[in-house]
Amino acid sequence: MQHRNNYTEIEDFLADESFHLWVCFKDDQQDWEEWTLENSSRAKLVEEARLWLFAMKTPDSDLSAEAVQNALEATWMKIETKEENKNAIAQPVLKLWKNQWFRKIAAILVIGLLSGWFYNDHFATKNSALTYNELINENDEGLVEQTNNSDKPQIITLSDGSSVLLQPNSKLSYPKIFVGNERKVYLSGEGFFEISKNPQKPFFVFANEIVTKVIGTSFKIKAYANQPNIEVVVRTGKVKVRSNELIANSKDELIVLLPNQALRFVRKNLIFNKITDITQDETLSHSTSNIEQLGFEFTDIPVAQIFKTIEQAYLVKIDFPQAKLKDCYLTTSLGDQPLQEKLKIICKSLGNNSSYEMNGNQIIIISDGCN
Amino acid sequence: MKKQILHTETLDDSILWSNLKKGDEKAFSILFKKYYSHLVRYGNSFIPFPEKVQDCVQDVFTDIWVYRNKLNDSVVVKAYLLACVRKRITRSQERDRIFRLSTSVDSIKFLFDFSIEHHLIADEITADKVLRLNQLINDLPSRQKEAIYLRYNQELTVDQIANTLDINYQSANNLLHRALLCLRKDWKASISLILLLFLTAF
Q1: Whole-angstrom distance, CA of residue B19 vs CA of residue B65
Q2: Residue B167 at interface with chain A, using a CB cutoff of 8 Å
Q3: Where is the signal peptide (chain B) (predicted)?
Q4: Which long-range contacts does B190-197 make (Cβ < 8 Å, 24+ apart)?
């Protein structure tokens, strides 16, 4: 017991069990009382250590002897079930496991399965479910991306004069200027396309797993990354749809769509469902936007009203000299023309040095009145 | 003499332990009754589900009996049991977290609070000091608190603490050292404050 004479720190006392007994249970077999009084600096240390012990009590256990007994019985039950299981399964397996050959075969099997799984996991993601980002990474033309985070559709005009009405929560990537023999854009979400005619340069829309090829038409594509289906709805012209060749197990299937036909692509099993009459399809007929409903066949219609129709269709704002164009009436068919083409045709019809300027969704018509 | 007390205790345990290994059900039951509530209390300081904790502790004992042939001879039973319970609860928590798809899988927190030996405190000044000290201890980071608990309430050695917390000896030592250093510093500051308050009050 003499080593307590070397105690210099509170923790020396805390770690001493007989000190515990003395402080907490007044059990002073080691004559702590006397030892403490021998020396005043020692007494100070002991007093501190006492306070520490007082402050470090462990809360009493609320388990009764009966509860512990019950727990013990429960544990014996658990042991019984576990030993039964162990004897039933573990013995033959263990015996088998002790066989060298079995171990070798098992190891080979495990490695084979793992590598198979790894291969699948690694390449299967590429096989199905192409995402917008993967598609964009495939392209090296230096794309511009436009995202519509607003709650209204947004008009995008491409360098070839084609226009795209991009719905909220959608994005479109396209080259600033189309070069080469193809025009390629990438869509995630929903957009209504009006493509300017150019048979020499076919226009491609890449949307998730499918590719839509057109020459000059208007159509809608709905391809949200988080939805099970992709939809293509044709308004005018002819549209060809095939699956993206980046998908390894794609079928070389080409679907041709004509006006008022549509296609639903089931992404999970890569199946095309052609819908020959869109008015018959519940979901499609409900989800048409303004631009798909509005007609662009005008016969002797005030130009102000034509502008209003365009404003509604493309959600743009058109400023025009109302007084000067008050008496202008037009007869024209603007059905499958892109927005800029429509404006060009109108300005041409108005004559008199009429022209338009477009700035985002603001369009200004400059005109001195019609002929 | 102190050595002797500790010695008889560990001797007792080690005899029970080796009997248990030989298949002595009585030894198993004695150890179970001796440590069950300790272990449950320790387990309860990690997760607020008393039934689950009891389940974990019972599973620890179940495995000890079922796999008694593989048990190590030279263990300090109490330290071994505490470590087993801690590991088991940590593991069950991690499993739950995976199922809940939560992101944090960091080590479990020691939520235990030390209490005060009220019935041993006679005067007000002491009561005030002890209360302050108790708050300081309970405000320690949870790992430091756990180290203190294992060292001074469960009387584990630093080596056994390191084993229980799954860290190396030096880390366990540092943990304890830092806790005590921090306590002593704050304690000195607050003691003078308490004394000052009392002096001005009278």
Answers
A1: 11
A2: no
A3: none
A4: B190/B132, B190/B133, B190/B136, B191/B129, B191/B132, B194/B125, B194/B128, B194/B129, B194/B132
Q: Where are the domains of chain B?
A: 2-99, 118-201
Whether the Cβ atoms of residue A103 and residue A135 lie closer than 8 Å to each other: no
Write out pLDDT tens, residues B25-36. 888 998 998 889
Q: Say whether residue A136 is in contact with chain B using an 8 A CB cutoff.
A: no
Q: With an 8 Å Cβ cutoff, are B62 and A82 in contact?
A: yes
| CB within 8 Å: A51 and B65 | no
CB contact under 8 A, A59 and B115: yes
Tens-place pLDDT, residues A229-285: 888 888 888 888 887 766 655 556 788 888 878 888 887 777 888 887 777 776 766
Q: In this structure, which topology does domain B118-201 adopt according to CATH? A: Arc Repressor Mutant, subunit A (1.10.10)
ipTM surpassing 0.85: no
Q: Tell me the residues of chain A between 55 and 94 that have a Cβ less than 8 Å away from chain B.
A: 55-59, 61, 63, 65, 68-69, 71-72, 74-75, 78-79, 82-83, 86
Q: Which CATH number fits domain B2-99: 1.10.8.50, 3.40.50.360, 1.10.1740.10, 3.90.79.10?
A: 1.10.1740.10
Quote the pTM value.
Answer: 0.46
Residue of B nearest to A68 (CA): B33
